[in-house]
Amino acid sequence: MMDDVAAIRKEYALKELDVDQVDKNPIIQFKNWFQEALDADLVEPNAMNVSTVSSEGKPTSRILLLKGIEDGGFVFFTNYSSRKGKELAQNPNICLNFFWAGLERQVRIEGTVEKISVEESTTYFHSRPRGSQIGAHVSPQSQVVEDREALIQKEKELVREFEGKEVPKPDHWGGYLVTPNLIEFWQGRPSRLHDRIVYKLEANNWKINRLAP
């Protein structure tokens, strides 16, 4: 089996990427690539790997969904009491990674987070499906639970409690804004000589360089 895994490989040749082709602003460049991912009808193009670091210096990652692209950065929502929320409260450094296999592309974003306003979080919360709103109350995210049945019973109780009422946003739930200080765009190329263009924030200006693959 391991021999079969070692033999897995793919030659990338769809597109190319050069410093002269990218926008001087990495947020705009990301928006351009994200639109191409949408146009290509990729499955959940806003899915991203989110990495945080514990107080012991141990990294951990999970897949979340990007929910906003602003001039200042990238927005996602979660449970502030979850493992990731607790780690971000201790260490605001974060890394996001998007992989769009259908376009042979990857984007890596390094930066720091801060909570967005309660008003912004509440507005987004009430735009979610009602089941998702109730689910935010049901789940003590990242905590040990007795079994799935306990969650289902809690959901039933809350469905009855909120029947005919607006579901309030939990205090422990809301959004983060990721302010980037480094963004790398990766385009797969033949012979593993991939194109890597990196933007690094220096003295409030974005410096653009090509990296070796």
Q: Descriptors for this entry?
A:
213 residues, alpha+beta, 9-stranded antiparallel β-sheet, Pnp Oxidase, Chain A, single chain, 9 strands, 2 domains
Compute the number of structural domains.
2
Q: What would you report as the Rg, rounded to the nearest angstrom?
A: 20 Å
Distance between the termini: 28 Å
CATH class of the largest domain: Mainly Beta
What does this structure look like?
This protein is 27% helix and 34% strand. Strands 1, 2, 3, 4, 5, 6, 7, 8 and 9 form a nine-stranded antiparallel β-sheet that branches. β5 and β6 (105-115) form a beta hairpin. The relative contact order is 0.19. The protein starts with a helix and ends with a strand. With 213 residues, it is α+β, with helices and mostly antiparallel strands.
Question: What's a concise summary of this model?
Answer:
The chain has helices at residues 2-6, 26-39, 83-90, 118-125, 130-138, 148-161, and strands spanning 47-53, 59-65, 68-70, 73-79, 93-100, 105-115, 173-187, 195-202, 205-211. By secondary structure, it is an alpha+beta fold.
Secondary structure topology:
Blueprint (H helix, E strand, L loop, with lengths): L1 H5 L19 H14 L7 E7 L5 E7 L2 E3 L2 E7 L3 H8 L2 E8 L4 E11 L2 H8 L4 H9 L9 H14 L11 E15 L7 E8 L2 E7 L2
